[in-house]
User: Fold this.
Amino acid sequence: MASVEWRSIPTVLYPQEILDKAFGRASSQADLVDDPDKYHRVRKQMNRMVQSACDVITKTLNSYVDRWPSLNALMEFDRALVDAAVGCDDYKRNLGALQWAAERSQRISGEAQSKILRLRDIDGFHKARRHAYGRISSIIDQISPQILWLGEARDILRKLPSIDPLEPCIVVAGSPNVGKSALISALSSGEPQVAAYPFTTKQLHLGHFTHRRRVYQMVDTPGLLDRPMAERNQIEMQAIAALEHLGDVLLFLIDSSDESTTPVSEQESLLAEVTALMSERTVFVVGSKSDISPSNDEYDHAISSLTGLGLEELRKSLIDNIDADKIEDPLTLPEHWPREEEI
Ligand SMILES: Nc1nc2c(ncn2[C@@H]2O[C@H](COP(=O)(O)OP(=O)(O)OP(=O)(O)O)[C@@H](O)[C@H]2O)c(=O)[nH]1
Ligand SMILES: [Mg+2]
Assistant:
């Protein structure tokens, strides 16, 4: 199961654009028909038009169905995102409607072609073509709300974070403003990606670093865990439950500097709550902004994303703790594979 590339979900055309594309292609196909005999020419043209219009409709609709991730194949976390963002039931229902229309369109094509085959006059060929076009238009009309829904859903889904379930993942949590995003930037090779959770208006950061060809992903949780349990809605709880399966390690940041916007006691009660929720997960408590917080020594790690203090030690602890290669047989590694710890 690779990560879902939300960004690569294709643009969904408007219903009228789908029809224009189909009929436009059909006309240009008809122009290619070359037969000196008018009767045969028109018959071939009308046949060709119906066939190519229906093919375009079917291919276009099926390409949406194929290129949208299948919910059953998604990991729990991604499914929770889809559910919160657009609703899994609607997602399935609307894609299902496209599939239905694609099949209908193939059927219309078959029926029109066998009808044209039976007809014996030029006028009849034209009529059969017009009749088929009418049926195609009404099918597209009928699923127009579903097409529009998918167009809007696509714009929402594109912004979701893409996380690869086969690579290690570090979830970064803590109260607002404690330095979560700054830490992800500081540990990342390259600029972190900006993505969105459907539960919050805040942007989340998605960073990564590589160690021994493995990609360690880091993901922010802005607005997801930083409120007391009672204020969270059901859909957020679902995402939090899914988050539990996602991360290998949870980094919980505490800002005890004078700049902190949440009292330390409150941050600590959030920590207790999050730790209880993520009972199966290793939690590292990290004192952030150590350049301006003198009392960070009591935590598992003291770091400053600003000065770099403690960052490499934290990275090493993460790698050691996740121990991503533990199930791999060392004998399968190349002979001169470096076995020293090297970061
Ligand atoms: N002095 C100091 N300031 C820091 C450090 N890390 C972050 N900050 C500052 O703290 C503020 C908040 O940092 P962010 O990384 O945006 O915090 P966050 O936890 O992502 O905040 P939200 O996403 O809003 O919850 C910013 O003004 C940062 O510049 C640090 O190590 N030292
Ligand atoms: Mg942030």
Summary: Strands lie at 169-174, 193-196, 203-211, 214-220, 249-254, 282-287, 301-302.
